[in-house]
Amino acid sequence: MILKSEYIKVLCYTRTPQEDIIYAPRLAYSMHLAYSENGRDFQALNHNSGVLFAKATNHENGTLRAKSLKNPYLFRIADGKFGVVAVRTEADGQQDEESRGAVLFFTSGDLLQYQEIGLVDLKSGAYAQDVACEYDESSQAYVIRWSDGKGGSYQNKIQDLYDLAGAGTPEKAEAFTLEAVSADIEGIQPRNVIRVPRETAQRLVCRLTVPENVAIEVPDGIKAASAEDLKALKATAVYSDGTTAPKAVDWDTAAVRWDQAGTYRVKGRVRQEHYAFPIAPNRADPCITKWNGKYYFIATNDADGNRTLYIREAETISGLVQAGESLILDTQTYDHIKGLLWAPEFHIIEDRLYIFHAATTGEFFYEECHVMKLREGGDPTCAADWSMPRRVVRKDGTELCEAGKVISLDMTVIQVNGDCYAAWSERQFVPVDLGAWVYIAKLDPKEPWRLASDPVLLTKPDFGWANNHTFVDEGSFALIRDGRIFLTFSSAAVDATYCVGLLTADANADLLDPGSWTKGNYPLLTSRSVPGEYGPGHNSYITDDDGVTWNVYHARPGVEGPRGSGIRRVHFGMDGYPVLDLTEERDLNPALAEVSIEIIVQRD
């Protein structure tokens, strides 16, 4: 999408909630964005999903209290950034006692990443019902206009919005209205429109829309001595956001005389792997790795109530779809493994293959992270070649979590710059349910069932999309590219509201410092991302022999359907961020798949 106008109009809005499983209040009561080049026809961004959510607050006992927002107002700050004021509410949209006499203030440099500054004190005991804010150049102050829902309209002046207590006393004012906006967007509750410079808008639109293949480029000609020379040539797929991706081509060289000098025009077809969803019904939390020249697939087995783990083996990733399964762990072999075999992941650490998984020694409340090691020279499909599952412990050898009170699961491994880290999810149930939070610690690569540092909290489910139906952050997995770590994680209930969030960090940063990580305000993948796939989540990544990175995930074929595994290519869009919802038809336009090239065969 190449924007042409000098300024683009951007509309902020909220949505009317739908059925709870489809678009609940915690999703609808967030700021959404749409754009228009002509100022009339607005197109929703981010699949008509929210991009800015209010953070949860904390109860005294440590539990989270979910919040939502309504009536957001988007404006420019004097320092050049964007500002948003909104009325913070309870999760369901009702009045928030903690926000009485105050409005919520956010800032953003690009309308993609937002910082919640906090509640601006309006010096009033009334609940704000509506709010707007603009910078008044003449007084060099901001004017916050608001209404209390009882017919009263007020305004406060404040020199510095970052000084949350700096507003003057409210003055009675005329009721304010916003310019009416009409947009054909499902459920829209429009708010206000601002002008955004083309450069900022271009990045916003490219990041919040799915790119599509607009061209395929190959050289006009190539000198080649054999079919192998031509096979190594990749086509370049060009996308609507200006990004590109290399593509293998299957060339028809039957008419080429490789033993005779000459010039030939040959045709080819850009290769597109096809993975119909699901590739593995009743399999969730999938993971693929390559080990000793072969690919292996493992996943949670929903078909038998999570009581077994099976492995598939194949020469290629596509071969895993029809490959047979080999049992490598069940609940009958070991006394301490009684069930709930969840989220198995392959990880290669110092040239040894491990499986990290969760299991319980008895009841649900004893679910813990475990590690199995493949014996040297062992066959991954042979159960006898795997060690007994060993429980993950802290650096001093004590329990990672207090059994019966806190569960641990979904442990993954991050290896960067010679260091090894583990990230996992914990959920405290006793004395109160805190929800599932993701932690990180260094891992001992010699004994990867032992932490090498104390755990550090990375993320908890403080946004509405992460605490929808339940408070859960889990299922993290790292994708490292161009000096950055993209740590995706899954949130909300494991139903059609499940989704994938994102943490990013510089690969050279201190990963045990929470300040090194940036959490995205909105999820990368939801039930609105790909038609027919509901509750996508708990994904992992594998890069094949051609250098193509694949997202391996689970979703449901219907709102109430069983979980199944899927595979989709990861595209790296504007700014290098992973795009997880690039469907096959957008990845390669079938009308562009046929290409041709002139081959010059030279012989001595």
Structural commentary:
With 604 residues, the chain is mostly beta strands. Helices cover 4% and strands 45% of the residues. The chain contains 5 helices and 43 strands. A 4-stranded antiparallel β-sheet has the order 3-2-1-14.
Strand coverage percent: over 45%
Q: What is the rounded Rg?
A: 27 Å
Low-confidence stretches: none
Structural class: mainly beta
Q: What level of helicity do the residues show? A: under 10%
Profile the largest sheet. Answer: 4 strands, antiparallel
N- to C-terminal separation?
A: 49 Å
What's the total number of strands? 43
The shape, in one word, is globular
List the helices and strands and how they pair.
Elements: E1 7-15, H1 20-23, H2 25-28, E2 32-36, E3 43-44, E4 57-58, E5 64-65, E6 67-76, E7 82-90, E8 102-108, E9 114-121, E10 130-136, E11 141-147, E12 153-158, E13 171-172, E14 188-197, H3 198-207, E15 213-217, E16 221-224, H4 227-231, E17 235-239, E18 244-247, E19 249-251, E20 262-270, E21 280-281, E22 283-291, E23 294-301, E24 308-314, E25 325-330, E26 339-349, E27 352-360, E28 367-373, E29 390-391, E30 406-416, E31 419-428, E32 435-442, E33 456-459, E34 473-481, E35 484-491, E36 499-506, E37 517-519, E38 534-543, E39 549-556, E40 564-569, E41 571-572, E42 578-579, H5 584-587, E43 594-601
Parallel strand pairs: 16-43
Antiparallel strand pairs: 1-2, 1-14, 2-3, 4-5, 6-7, 7-8, 8-9, 10-11, 11-12, 12-13, 15-17, 17-18, 19-20, 20-43, 21-40, 22-23, 23-24, 24-25, 26-27, 27-28, 28-29, 30-31, 31-32, 32-33, 34-35, 35-36, 36-37, 38-39, 39-40, 41-42
